[in-house]
Amino acid sequence: TDKVRSSLPLLGKKIMVTAGPTYEAIDPVRFIGNHSSGKMGFAIANRFASLGADVTLITGPTTEKSNYELKRIDVVSAADMLSACKAEFGKADITVMSAAVADYTPVTRAEQKIKKTSNEFNLELKKTTDILATLGQLKTDRQILVGFALETQNEETYAKEKLIKKNLDLIVLNSLNDKGAGFKMDTNKITIFNKAAEKIVFEMKSKTEVAKDICNEILKLVNV
Ligand code: CTP
Ligand code: CA
Description:
The chain has helices at 2-7, 39-50, 78-89, 131-138, 155-165, 207-219, and strands at 14-19, 24-27, 30-32, 54-59, 71-74, 94-97, 104-106, 125-127, 144-151, 170-175, 187-188, 190-194, 199-201, 205-206. By secondary structure, it is of the alpha/beta class. The protein has a single domain (2-106, 121-219), classed as Rossmann fold, CATH 3.40.50.10300. The chain has an 8-stranded mixed β-sheet, with helices on both faces. The longest helix has 13 residues, at 207-219. The chain is globular, with a radius of gyration of 18 Å. The two termini are 16 Å apart. It catalyses: (R)-4'-phosphopantothenate + L-cysteine + CTP = N-[(R)-4-phosphopantothenoyl]-L-cysteine + CMP + diphosphate + H(+); N-[(R)-4-phosphopantothenoyl]-L-cysteine + H(+) = (R)-4'-phosphopantetheine + CO2. It comes from Pedobacter heparinus (strain ATCC 13125 / DSM 2366 / CIP 104194 / JCM 7457 / NBRC 12017 / NCIMB 9290 / NRRL B-14731 / HIM 762-3). GO terms for molecular function: FMN binding; metal ion binding; phosphopantothenate--cysteine ligase activity; phosphopantothenoylcysteine decarboxylase activity.
């Protein structure tokens, strides 16, 4: 009915969201990770699901749980996340890449636990594939692609560069400098840049509220 349609404006829309950190194995017992909790990505996935969308959530290791019915794909490394994203991206009308993907991964993973035999130990790392940039290359005209940026300096310039370079429709800049924003926190402060070079500044709020703001900006770009 019309009533259902107006309360669930995204019925039939396919959304892909990534969340959490990635873990890059060093040996069977160690990894390189980061402090991402997955909260922001889960909040975005929940928000879209609450609007009736068909959500696929690709997440790195996290203790977060979704409140809504969605397709959850658990991954560990940046390479795993890349494969899952490539497999799902074609189906998605809207993709939001909020995962904190490792930029570097060990060149080799030791088969056995590394012993502390030498005084110095150098770990050789190589760059991971930029998943967001890869999706930006694959993107068709009917798809919306949204990325995040985390900066500690020249944040506006760097964020706008990423928007262009990765072929995004929107970029969400996380203001890590503000107290109460960022990793592990329940609140966040964001600024969104779009392709029209508009800058939309938001107040610090709960990640649930931030997710609403992000979804609203995305929905302005699609006809729903
Ligand atoms: N990202 C990605 N794949 C990677 C690294 C990052 O998809 N291997 C995505 C993140 O999910 C985020 C965006 O790229 O949406 C920006 O991440 P960020 O760390 O701010 O930028 P980078 O492009 O990795 O550049 P740098 O870390 O040097 O600032
Ligand atoms: Ca990075």
